[in-house]
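We store amino acids, tokens; thus:
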Amino acid sequence: RSLEDSLGASAKLSASETAFDGGKNAALVKKSNLATEAARENLRATQVSMIDDADSAFYSLLEAQASVDAKASDLEAATLRLKIAQAKTEAGTLSKSDYLQSESEAASSETALIKAKKTLASAKAKLASLTGLPASTALEQVDFAAYESLLAKLSFLDEASIDNLAASIAAMAKANDPGLAGYSLAKEQSKLAVAAAKAAYLPTLSAGVSQNFSFGASGFSASGSVSLSASLSLDLWNTKNSVDNALIAAKQAELEGSAQEQGLELDVNQAVYEWIASARAVSSSAKALEYAESNYENVLEKFKLSSATASDLSTAEALVSGDRTSLITARYAF
């Protein structure tokens, strides 16, 4: 009988929960969510940068190909002049010095073509490394004629219209730029870090509940209790340092975000004005090249008839070459 009375079992269940922590945990959860969002924006920024690099490499390759074609045309013109000069020299109607000038400039044109081909090979290699496409891949050329109406509109914009256009594009850039979004998220994270640091000034309240169960010879019994406890850090010095550091970081994040926004706006404004300038340069360079080519044909005929000197023809060739290069640069800058 006494043995039966001594036999029994008991169990205890307890649970506790922080009832109030000054908002520290909530701030840390929000900060963690913002960090995830910031990581997504960083990924988007990387993607945009890669697209921009590939885009730049693509147009650089097309410009390099156009430059090769231009240098080949220069060499063709210089070779033609050299042939005419040689015939004139053999006929005794051209001085030796004029012939040597034509020979020298033909050699220079050949060297320029070789350099242009090397630049083209480098551009092909760069695009291949960025895209994984073979360097021999044929690229679709830009149909510049399709942009003539746009070029005309941009060329005739007045200063107020250009300012409005720049402001509109800047607004779109601010709304969609992943870098600026990253700075905005960093600013919000820093504010939450300040809130979490300041929470250390406040007490932490914890609530607990426990339930005891026992079973013995006398039968089943249960009892329970509820508790509420509070704790407060007395290390105010470290708490103050943490808050001060968080405030400094928040101020720095705000300044960096403002600087990024201002920098983006300046970059967009500069890009728009350069874009407009390129549009105007395309039109003026095309007209200049048209005149230069007409002038070259005229001088070439005069040179054949000995009514123009080798220097005159050289100057005409240089004018065509320079205007052709200016047109290529303006087109691909646009």
Q: What stands out?
A: Residues 49 and 55 are 10 Å apart (CA to CA). The beta strands are 8-20, 204-216, 219-231. The first strand starts at residue 8 and ends at 20. The longest helix spans residues 236-304.
